[in-house]
Amino acid sequence: MDNSVSRVIFRMTASTNSATHNPIAIIQEEFGCVLVGNQSRARKAAMNVYCQSLHCLLLASLVLLTTALTPARAGEIILRLSDPPERGNVIALVFRDGDSFGSFRDAWRREVFSVDETEPPYRIQDLPEGDYAVLLFRDENNNGRLDRNFIGIPSEPFALSNDYQPSGPPSFQRARVRVTPGEPVEQSLSLYRPLGGFGQVGVGPGVIGQTSPYRDSSDSPLQLIPAITYLGERLQWTGPQLRYLLATGDNWRLAAQADLRLGAYEESDSPWLEGLGDRKTSVMGGLALTYELPAGLSLSGSAQTDLLGLSKGSTARLQLSRGFQLGLLRVSPSLGLNWLDGSLADYEFGVDQAHARADRPGYSLSSALNWEAGFSVFYELSSNWQLVGNFGIETLDSAIVDSPIVDRQRLGRGFLTLSYIF
User: Fold this and answer.
1) Residue 246 phi, psi (nearest 5)
2) Segment 347-385, tens digit of pLDDT
């Protein structure tokens, strides 16, 4: 049977260029379904149906075999550097979607070019037709990966396709090149450091807001603030937060972190707070860790304590997020848990017995665990101007909601800044 199939495929292939060969006749001869004259009409009809079905099956197999053995035409991207390094390795990361490109993670393809063995230009070959964005970087410490600071900005010199040089998360749309078979795409690039030699400074206006959980609070939910940022290779200062990178690995980064914890309330904000004293702004300090998970997910956590001793309390946070690129807009939804120990929860939401009243009984908390859902946004207006925001809703623990000075379970919070990057 196998030899018959081979002969049929061979003869049918040859018959495609000859008008004298009948595929049905070939199948009939090879598989013994030649119709004898004295067979009944029903027998002949059945044999014809059998042979025609076999013919269709073999033709389909032949088409699939031919397609599999025919190499697809591929495209090529040629990268020329204006300032190629004299030694070491240059590594190209090839991306096919905006989500992974926006965080420089999960590259579709990776090419390593040894400067000692590869003469420029650098060629990325055998690319299927489609849209691509390329990141090319100099591996200065030969660790095989793109080194970045705590928030993910590369600290090694790199270049992007179209010689695109963003000041924040990159847009796939601006780095995109179209690859078609037989038409090499040539790119002239220059390596650059987005943090420069002294880091990146941004200034601009901003607005910050948070609803109050306290009963009858008159606290204003919105405030105008100056938005000042500094992003260095190790040190980052973004408004009320300061980080210093301590260690980094293939998919994790560890930093020392300090945050301003805004004062929970002033006793003049509400009659229910009178006599409790002001809860002033303090500084929380500790460690923060971010870990890159599969599928573009990021897990971040922090543990901090009150450095000024106002509350003598501690807090911890765990957050899961993922970034999505929508043209020039990057949106990163997140889910998180915020834990407050008993001292901090009591400081902000408790009522000590010394200040208890008939309508405000004493109340103490052992700890609290709040849920938070939100999203951050980044929009690149130009190479220097950017719009950054973060918005969320926090659901308070029932232990907080049961406090006599609290009357809301959910809090809204957010900020929005317009920054010019120097």
Assistant:
1) -100, -40
2) 999 999 999 999 999 999 999 999 999 999 999 998 889
